[in-house]
Design a protein that fits this description.
The protein is of the alpha+beta class. The protein has 4 helices and 8 strands, in the order αααββαββββββ. The protein folds into 2 domains: about 30 residues; about 120 residues, no CATH class.
Length: about 150
């Protein structure tokens, strides 16, 4: 009788773990968030070089127009709707020319956010520093986002 209960408990715990793992994976797959850019929303062109913020190899989450006006400069400086968006902006030094940048925001079931920034490099040997950014849906003031950068040749 004890063995039967132990075996049943063991099998139930295995299936419960499988179900939780499956739900976590499904949650991550379902929680990708589309990210608008200044190019799409405000008509800026090539913000990799047209925007500047005094950062090196890091990023900042800008939540207000005042902070944006104080810290971000460049040939395209649109009036971002900070009631609707937060701006995550950063700079990255690269050893070769940059072709493009893509972004992927993942949210876990527990609400943790991770932004993956992928730099797609070209064959030019010109080292460069680029600005990357995304407009994020407005969130509460204690929002934290882990940022992971990848370089693809």
């Amino acid at each position: 009788m004890k063995r039967g209960i132990i075996l049943i408990s063991f099998f139930l715990s295995i299936f419960a773990c499988d179900k939780e793992d499956k739900e976590d994976k499904e949650c991550m797959l379902l929680m990708y968030v589309p990210l608008p850019s200044l190019e799409e929303v405000y008509g800026c062109t090539d913000t990799r070089y047209a925007l500047h913020i005094d950062l090196q190899e890091t990023h900042e989450l800008i939540r207000t127009k005042r902070t944006y006006d104080e810290k971000v400069t460049g040939s395209c400086h649109p009036a971002i709707d900070f009631e609707k968006y937060d701006l995550l902006i950063g700079r990255k030094g690269l050893k070769s020319g940059n072709h493009s940048i893509t972004y992927e925001l993942k949210k876990s079931c527990t609400g943790e956010e991770r932004l993956v920034v992928t730099f797609h490099q070209d064959i030019s040997a010109v080292a460069t520093t680029v600005t990357y950014h995304v407009l994020l849906p407005k969130a509460d003031s204690n929002r934290t986002i882990a940022v992971e950068t990848k370089i693809v040749y």
